[in-house]
Structures are given as structure tokens and as C-alpha cells.
Amino acid sequence: MKFTNGFWKIREEITPLYAVEYGGCRINGGELTIYAPGKQIRSRGDILNLGMLTIRITSPMEDVLKISVSHFEGAADPGPFTVIEECDPRVSIIESEENIIFQTGSTKAVVDKRPDSWGIRFLDEDRELTSTGLKNMAYMKNRDNGKCYMVEQLALDVGEYVYGMGERFTPFVKNGQIVEMWNEDGGTASEIAYKNIPFYLTNKGYGVLVSNPGDVSYEVASEKVERIQFSLEGERLDYYVINGGTPKGTIKKYTDLTGKPSLPPAWSFGLWLTTSFTTDYDEDTTSGFIDGMAKRDIPLQVFHFDCFWMEAYEWCNFTWDSKTFPDPVGMLKRYHEKGLKICVWINPYIAQKSPLFQEGMENGYFIKKRNGSVWQTDMWQAGMGVVDFTNPEAAAWYQQKLKTLLDMGVDCFKTDFGERIPVKDIVYHDGSDPVGMHNYYTYLYNKAVFELLVKERGEGEAVLFARSAAAGSQKFPVHWGGDCSASYPSMAETLRSGLSLACSGFGFWSHDIGGFESTATADVYKRWCQFGLLSSHSRLHGSSSYRVPWLFDEEACDVLRKFVKLKCRLMPYLYRQAVAAHENGIPVMRPMFMEFPEDRACEVLDRQYMLGDSLLVAPVFKESGDVEYYLPDGKWVNLLSEKVMEGGSWKKETFDYFGLPVLVRENSIITVGSCDSRTDYEYGDGVEFWLSVFEDGGIGETSVTDLRGKVVINVKAVREADVIRLFVTGGNGNWSYKVLGAQNVKVLTI
């Protein structure tokens, strides 16, 4: 949101109150309060008829600064509030004649007390991260509509890039963009996003979280090209400056604050196949798909039933359509006997025709209007109401309906929608602010479903397939990229969005292989299969057409088979990365700059990514099979062809549908499993250790976990001259090794 017209002019309808100078402080334990009047005080009379901003600096954990800026502190703030995990770090507050230094860990806020020098500098030791200064921090009043806004502008350095802010389909580097934190169902081809997260990360290694789930507006080097501005309606603005030292370190700190991703079950990493959306299907159809995959030796692990498992006009009634599926219990039993897990589609809306609508209305389980009536709409489902998850009884009621499905044999849920949440004339059970609840609603919705799965299936067995999200939603995986189109540009924008979401602390992510809208060509489908199976989670899903490979061509079956089996064998490596995401918050799929923060070439790359810390993946986006990608310094070896390549430059290659750049980083050990038909097996039994190119003196370490994430084998490789010493501890001794590429080395096992 813009408040100025160029550098000099304030917009005519705006009355600003800027923080102009230091006006005193109070220190209370670990809290520093600064008073910043709206004009320079040169005489006693200047303090009259004057607005002032109150700034509180605290620290919820080491190397994290919370900045609270308020105008009228008596203004009501009914919530909702971003869930923050706080501890009690040691802080120091030192005041001198010229400044006040608030320090936690190596991170400092330095408040300038000198006349004509107002500002707060945020430092990592003596390195400046960012700052706010004269006419940056403000309270703005719009005289035309009476609305008031809190505004902050933080400095951007020369060459500083901004990333994140949720799952965004626009350019990966956000500089120059206007970004609105407002969840909407808008597909993947615009600035609209399903998952708006008010947290950004920069290539300087710090991040900023605005602690407001509502309509935060960003001007990223746009209104002021030297600054990133964020604003929101109201009388108070809270934000956190998070300093992890590196992009990875800051993501770890951010997820310390907002929650770590839960560890999904190993079976969820296998291939998911769906009915698609508006296609016709019954048990014969779904069984035909399942049997067709088995006949073609394409491992399938999860089958998903989309919306029409329920009767039309009744979404959601949580009851199988008896005309289409007369024996759901028997059907699910038969599918379980084939080794499949079952997922069904749900959303948080109850159509008026649903038998549950009357029950929900009578018990006050829906969002209401101010006059006490139920808020309803004809959009999506006729007369539908929206479950009010701020009402504990409504949440329990919703969970009970889902429990019936779990008892029937359903294993997980696709928690669709959650973006179309009303704001005008709305009252929530707990009195929450409707604007704040618009984005935060999906957090409560997915939390309710995820917690039910944990309760019923146990820790480590809960998984969702969610579309919408808010800050903290990473705790409830998995999320997928929404309604993309069946084209290369949409495939590329999908990858961009996943990398942006990774910069927002989400450890696990998926997308619709082959695209959702329209039907892909066989070429696009096969290339998307490669990309999809080299993602943390992999699902074939479409809108009006099926996504089984034989409907494209027979080669599509071969391509899909190859990459499903590859993923199954890579599970010891991938699940270790998943455990790391759960423990430290670092996403399984991550942008290049996050893994190589010192390599300036990596800062803008958005058509390749790291899959864990040792595999580089560059999907192919051209029918010709041509792909250009960048390799950071070091020697790399293609996992599929074992071709060794020297890094530090751009590469251009051409691949058929059975190959692409999947490159193993120097000094790495890729743990490869013995099973190519499932993703949930004993990873340590028969595991192979694939050794990449090791430089002289190079050291590589890794581990193998069990299906609960517990380490069962530790592995270390050290190269000395022409010998690689391989140290293996734990396990049953049933392991082997393989040296990738034509390396003239000897391996000694110890």
C-alpha cells in the first residue's frame, strides 16, 4: 500500500505521524520502551498537541528482536494472534549519552538518541543487517475513509534480495513487487496466493516476521526503492528481526518461533494417484486405475478420492455417495489389502443441502453475521455455511465427522480451500477480528484435522494435503501448490512458488504432476513426472481429465515407473532430509542460495533447486530436452549417468525423458535403499552408500534412520590421497558401497 507520491509528496488524503526523534526511554527488566515524538522538540511548548509513537523492544529468544510500535495503546486488539514459541533469553540494555543498545546473542538494536539523528540500527555484532530512520516508522491516517495504518520501512542494502512471503507464483526475487498478505483462491498464474506468510528472508542472512495474520501490505523496493515497507490497518505493528547469520540459520530461528514441520509418515513420500476433480468415476474406475498401475509395475502408495466421493450439492456431508460407492467399507478394505493408503477430499464448508447443515446451524457451529444469522453464500456450494473453528465445540463436531471416516478406513485428508473466508458483517464465536481471521482461519482448520489424525493414528502417522496456509501452518504438512495449468510456464511458476514457500519455513511441498487445468501433452506430462518424483511429495491430479500415464502414451508409463522406483530407492536419503526438516526447520526442497549463500550466482536461480543438502535438480522445461543450469564450485556427478562435471559455471545439456540434471555434490554420501516398490521399508537393511567425487582431504558424513526418524546407521567417508576410508557404525552389517563416476580411488571399509 502506497502512502506517498514519489520521494517528496505525501498523498493528498494521508495525514502522517512519523517517528522523528528520540523522546526518552524506560527500561523494565528485559524490555526497552522508546518514545518517539512526531516532530523535533526545540521548546517546552513543542510537546503540546503532538502525536507520539511508542516502541517496545524485547527478545522472545536469542538473536531475535521483537519490535512493537503503537500509536494509541488503548485500542482493542481481539486477535487472532500468530502463535509464537517464546523462551527467556539473556538480554543486555546499555545506555550511553549517544545511544541505547539492546542486545540478545550477537544481535543488537542500536537506538540513536542524538538530535536530528533518529533511527534504530539492527546489527549482527558490528555488521548492519537493516535499519529504520527518519520518516520510516509512521502512523498514517486516511482522511477520506477514516482508516488508520501503522507503517515501517526497513533499509535494503546494495545487492540485497528479498525472498519468501509465502507460496508466490511471481518472480522468485521479490524486489520491485507489491505483495498483499491476503489468501485467495486464484490459481497459479497471478500475484494472488493461497499461502500468504508475512515473513521475508534476504540474502544478507536475516529475516523479518510481521506478527499479524491479517492484511499486511508490502512494498518491496517499490514505493521506496531503497527500502522494504510493510503496513497494516490499526494502531499497533509488531515485527520480529530474526538473525540466524545465514539463510539456513534464519529459517531455523523462524521455525523455532512459529513451529517445526511435523515429520510425515514414510508412506506419504510415495506416489499418490487421484480420481481427478470433475471426471466420472466409481469403484470400477478407481480399481481399474489401481490395477492398471500394478499391471505396469508402477509403484502406487496412496489413492485419493476427490470431491465427488460425496453426493453433489452436499459438500461436505462426510458420507460416501451410495449410488457411486455402495460398499465403501469393503472397497477401502480391498484397497488396503493391495497395500494402499486412502485419502479423501474435504473442505471446511457445509452446503445447505447437506444433512449436517441443520445440525451445525442449530448448535451455533457456523460463522455468523452481526444480527445472529448464519453467514451463507452460493459460491462453490449452494447456501453453504463456514465452520467456526474458534468455537471449540464446532471444531470437536467437525473432528467427530472425520473420525467416522477414519474408523471406516480412510487414512488422511486433502484439506482443500480455506481461502474464501468472509470479512464484512462477520462475528466469530471467540470475538476474533474478521480481517485477521481471513488468513488465520486456515491455520485453525488444518490444525483441527491434523490433531485428530495424530490422536487417532499416532505421532508420525498424520499427514494432510493442504492448499491454504498461514504463518505456522508448516506444523501441519503436506501443502501443495494449487491449481496449475498443464504447460511448461505453469510448471516453472509452480517451482518458483515452492521455492518461495521454502523461504517461509515449509519443510514439505507438492504439486499436481502434469498440471491441474486442461490436459498436458505427453511431452509436458513426462517432464513433470520427473520434477514431481524429485519433490518431497508426489501426486498425479487433474481437473476434468485423468492423470494415469497410459492415457498419454506408453513411454509415459516407462518414465513414471523409472522415477517412482528411483524415489523409492532414494528414500533412505530423502527420509534423513525429512527428519532434518522436522528437527531444524530446513526444507527438503530448497533454493540454491539457501545452500550456497556465498555464491552470488545462486541468488536469483529459480529453475533449479537442492533436494536436501547433496542433490541438485534442474527440471527440463523445453520440448527439445534442452536445459541450462548453474553448478556451484566443486566436482559434481550426475546420479543417473555418473557423468562427472566441474562446477563454477553454467551448463547446457540435452536429455531424453529418462534423464535430467540430478547432480550429487562433492564430498557427499547418498544412501540408497534396497527396495524400489515402496517408500516405507527398513532403510538400513541392504542399504548402499553411493560415494560422490571426494577431493583429497574431503570428508562426508550422513546417517540412515528407521521409519520413526531414529538414527540406526552412521556413515563417514574420508579421502586421503587415492584412498577413501569408509566408517560405518550401527545396522546389521548388510550394506555395500558404490563409487560414482570414473574415479581412480580405493575404498577401505572400517
Automatic annotation (TrEMBL):
Pfam families: Gal_mutarotas_2, Glyco_hydro_31_2nd, Glyco_hydro_31_3rd. Its EC number is 3.2.1.177. It comes from the Bacteria. Residues 54-218 form the Glycoside hydrolase family 31 N-terminal domain. Residues 585-670 form the Glycosyl hydrolase family 31 C-terminal domain. It catalyses: Hydrolysis of terminal, non-reducing alpha-D-xylose residues with release of alpha-D-xylose. InterPro entries: Alpha-glycosidase_related, Gal_mutarotase_sf_dom, GH, Glyco_hydro_31_C, Glyco_hydro_31_N_dom, Glyco_hydro_31_TIM, Glyco_hydro_b. GO terms for biological process: carbohydrate metabolic process. Residues 261-576 form the Glycoside hydrolase family 31 TIM barrel domain. The keyword Hydrolase applies. GO terms for molecular function: alpha-D-xyloside xylohydrolase; carbohydrate binding. Keywords: Glycosidase, Hydrolase. NCBIfam families: PRK10658.1. Belongs to the glycosyl hydrolase 31 family. This is alpha-D-xyloside xylohydrolase. It comes from Lacrimispora xylanisolvens.
